[in-house]
Amino acid sequence: xxxxxxxxxxxxxxxxxxxxxxxxxxxxxxxxxxxxxxxxxxxxxxxxxxxxxxxxxxxxxxxxxxxxxxxxxxxxxxxxxxxxxxxxxxxxxxxxxxxxxxxxxxxxxxxxxxxxxxxxxxxxxxxxxxxxxxxxxxxxxxxxxxxxxxxxxxxxxxxxxxxxxxxxxxxxxxxxxxxxxxxxxxxxxxxxxxxxxxxxxxxxxxxxxxxxxxxxxxxxxxxxxxxxxxxxxxxx
Length: 236
Ligand SMILES: C[S@@+](CC[C@H](N)C(=O)[O-])C[C@H]1O[C@@H](n2cnc3c(N)ncnc32)[C@H](O)[C@@H]1O
Prior knowledge:
Rossmann fold; alpha/beta; disordered N terminus
């Protein structure tokens, strides 16, 4: 039985557990997690993403805060040769992705059930081919801005783990957070904003499946921004 006590970590600000899982969902969690959960090695040494997969993968994509996993599962299904790594500390969200893995028998998904930053810190330089941060919590109060997952410190870590030319996708429906993200991303010399016209960020690209949060936001009449950044080559 997996419950809150199993989940350690100290830097997550949101909820870790919601309503109790049904016996069926708990059963799927118990069946799948031993197979697909990422456990960090005891010794703090860089661990290549390939080590978490039992088959060679063409590349590794990384999603921070996958919620209930709809986007990650859709990407995994469209790209079976890619190893998809998702981080989500909210147990009911983890259970959502496990259900999708179970339904579609996705062999290329691995889940880290804790703060994404712990896993990011353990990844080697230039090891990730694409990263997604979709509708991160905006923490609107100024005194909470330091909790935002997209901020100067984490942008530096993302620049370290992303390969040259890798894409970082960030979606948000929060205007002030969007301006914050743009300001901090443009401040970092390692990223280039991939946009030629407003159309590039006002509409979701075809190969960017909708996430649950985005659909809810759309239903409530809010507009979202779809920001894409390219990791600048280290040695052009
Ligand atoms: C607003 S929800 C968006 C969920 C999903 N990406 C979507 O678009 O439907 C933000 C998610 O980020 C997760 N999160 C917050 N801090 C995190 C962290 N440090 N590492 C990984 N996930 C985190 C939360 O648990 C929550 O599920």
